[in-house]
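hiii, so i know i said id send this last week but things got crazy w the move. better late than never?? heres the sequnce for the chain we talked about at the cafe, plus the structure i predicted for it. fair warning i was half asleep when i ran it
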Amino acid sequence: MASPQSDDLHTRLVTWLKITLPLVALAFLATLFLFSNRFGQEGELPFAKIDVEELARRQGITAPEFSGTTTDGAAVNLRARSAHPAQDGDQARMDQLAATYRGADGAVIELRAEEGRMPLDGQSVTLEKGVEMTTSAGYRLTATDLTALTARTEVSTDNPVRGQAPFGTIEGGAMILTPDPAKANSYVLVFKKGVRMVYQPGS
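okay and structure toks below
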């Protein structure tokens, strides 16, 4: 017959094993899980890294819009379908970009492009691909690119531009639109580099 002391020792041993064995098993499983993650298939972690980087590149803003007033008194509005950081990180890329300048005298300059980019300082925006510029003075122009300032009314390009003018058609190797220094609330549109004009009577 077992003594009360032996029964007590047996009870304590069983109780201790009930607590200890599950903890040991849990620690063993955790160790297996840790090492299986560390030494798993070589393709798992690189794919996860690529997915994260791709997600970061696609982060952006839907329908961004910027409004302000230029130093020459024009109201400027810039909007796009979406914007996201460029790969170099120094500027934002935008698509379906549109910009509008409204002068104090009612003159309107509208810019549109399929794509565009803006430096992080926000001082300018460059329109690219399918670029169009229309003005309330009767100009409708196309260009490979246009750079528009946001602090003052200035639109320019050093590349060919062509289109309809109030008097007919016009084209040039460069163009710049700025406020008229001789007349308030007016603008001067200057074509450069091999300018060609075709006058159409009755225009």
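btw The chain has a mean pLDDT of 77. thought thatd interest u
miss u guys!!
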